[in-house]
């Protein structure tokens, strides 16, 4: 009996250790691989293009069961005036905008914008544009609110993206840039 217990424990420990070793190995490989890419922007863009049509199915139930949905409601409800949403993805914030909102939403992936365009919201005015958030075509001081949810970690140069968000936001108005790690939810 004790022998079996010890055997099972050793086996479980072995599986856990091997699993963690493999995960680490994959992480290191990914980092090394990414560093050697000649065109990182093109690689990242392609990742987003590929994920577009499965993005909502992947995250719908996860967001419902975590606190993300209520977090989106709260944050998006704070937006006012002329709003810019950066890295809008499949427009998962759409239904949380206050009635009458005037939103310009940008992303660099044409596929995610295609999915976003299929969603409708009759109570707000929203237009989608293909833009690189690190180099946007808007004039300085155009928007009252700039909203970014879960985008920062995906931008190749997040500092450049933030400085662009600041540039297009009117002085004294609000940038709402959010990035929440899962462990904080
Ligand atoms: C994880 S998704 C977040 C989508 C959405 N903000 C949300 O809350 O569900 C990140 C998005 O950022 C976009 N993105 C990444 N780099 C970008 C860039 N340089 N310019 C514009 N969009 C970018 C991706 O195409 C993707 O749609």
From TrEMBL:
Residues covered by the Methyltransferase type domain: 84-172
An annotated Gene Ontology molecular function: S-adenosylmethionine-dependent methyltransferase activity
Cleavable signal peptide: none
Top-level taxon of origin: Eukaryota
Any Pfam family hit: Methyltransf_11
InterPro entries assigned: Methyltransf_11, Thiol_S-MT
Name used for this protein in its record: Methyltransferase type 11 domain-containing protein
Source species of the chain: Paramecium octaurelia
């Amino acid at each position: 009996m004790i022998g079996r217990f010890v055997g099972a424990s050793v086996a479980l420990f072995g599986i856990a250790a091997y699993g963690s070793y493999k995960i680490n190995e994959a992480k290191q490989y990914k980092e090394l691989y990414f560093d050697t890419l000649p065109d990182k922007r093109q690689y990242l863009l392609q990742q987003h293009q590929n994920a577009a049509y499965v993005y909502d199915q992947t995250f719908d139930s996860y967001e419902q069961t975590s606190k993300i949905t209520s977090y989106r409601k709260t944050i998006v409800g704070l937006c006012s005036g002329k709003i810019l949403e950066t890295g809008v993805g499949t427009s998962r914030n759409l239904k949380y905008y206050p009635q009458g909102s005037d939103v310009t939403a940008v992303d660099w992936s044409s596929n995610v914008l295609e999915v976003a365009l299929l969603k409708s919201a009759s109570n707000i005015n929203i237009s989608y544009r293909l833009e690189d958030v690190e180099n946007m075509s808007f004039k300085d001081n155009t928007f009252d609110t700039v909203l970014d949810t879960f985008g920062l970690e995906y931008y190749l140069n997040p500092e450049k993206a933030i400085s662009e968000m600041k540039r297009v936001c009117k002085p004294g108005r609000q940038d709402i840039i959010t990035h929440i790690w899962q462990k904080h939810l």
